[in-house]
Write a structure and sequence with these properties.
- Strands 11, 12, 13, 14, 15, 16 and 17 form a 7-stranded antiparallel sheet that branches.
- Helices cover 23% and strands 34% of the residues.
- The chain folds into 2 domains: 101 residues, Pdz3 Domain (Roll), CATH 2.30.42.10; 90 residues, PDZ domain (Pdz3 Domain, Roll), CATH 2.30.42.10.
- The protein has 244 residues and is α+β, with helices and mostly antiparallel strands.
């Protein structure tokens, strides 16, 4: 089903965008039967697995989808899915990217039980999840609570290109400055970001960061995975261990 054409000068240049017929057919059937479209919901924030992230986790390839956050009330969280997990299969079928995972989960009906294969702590395991109903956009959105992080005594991790300070509530480390020529800057880390975990270990002091980096280097990792939160969203960033 054609939905749009690429028209840089007002006329078609032969490039179109469409929705697969199978998807369109399912949507029509849902509308006729239910009067609305209901899709399965996992309740997780996800991001691509880059080569560096794969290396930092000990994955053999960059296939799969990294869970950056599992919503508290979401089906995934209730089933045991956690931030840092890499989802590689749904019901035994490979999912190579976030887009593919979202499309696969969305194709299931709410209430459907699915087996997710996840990579965690160097091992694959299977977790059964009872999917929920995808909430409307207004229910999915989360607002800013308006809390401000008060400055504290800053510590510099110069080799990482970061200057950080303890957060006001003692949970995580607030980035106060980023060297524009550093790997951290290249990967999008910004002042105001909060580092909550390094290599799946929660960090509240610079010593925690240094310990996690040293353990990663001892294990032969070329990169270490940092969990970053910003504006109530979470994501993972891989930084070279050699620069720590």
């Amino acid at each position: 089903m054609n939905t749009a054409i690429f028209s840089p000068s007002g006329g078609s240049v032969g490039i179109g965008f469409d929705i697969p017929a199978s998807t369109a057919k399912q949507v029509v059937e849902d509308l006729m039967k239910e009067g609305s479209i209901k899709r399965g919901w996992l309740g997780v924030q996800i991001q691509p697995v880059t080569a560096e992230i794969a290396e930092s986790l000990g994955l053999k390839s960059d296939k799969g989808t990294l869970v950056s956050n599992a919503q508290d009330a979401g089906p995934g969280n209730k089933a045991g899915i956690a931030a840092g997990d890499v989802i590689t299969q749904v019901d035994g079928k490979d999912v190579a990217s976030p887009k593919e995972l979202a499309r696969t989960i969305g194709a299931y009906a709410p209430g459907k039980s699915v087996d997710l294969t996840v990579f965690r702590d160097g091992k694959s395991r299977t977790i059964k999840v009872d999917l929920g109903t995808l909430p409307s956009s207004d229910k999915r959105a989360s607002g800013d609570d308006g809390k401000q992080v008060a400055p504290a005594k800053a510590d510099a991790l110069a080799d990482l290109g970061l200057t950080i300070t303890k957060s006001d509530d003692g949970k995580g480390l607030v980035v106060t400055d980023v060297d524009p020529n550093s790997d951290a800057a290249d990967r999008g880390i910004q002042p105001g970001d909060v580092i909550t975990a390094v290599s799946s270990a929660k960090v509240n002091t610079t010593d925690d960061v240094s310990k996690a980096m040293a353990e990663a280097a001892k294990a032969g990792r070329k990169a270490v995975l940092m969990q970053i939160t910003r504006d109530d969203s979470s994501r993972f960033v891989a930084l070279p261990v050699g620069k720590a």
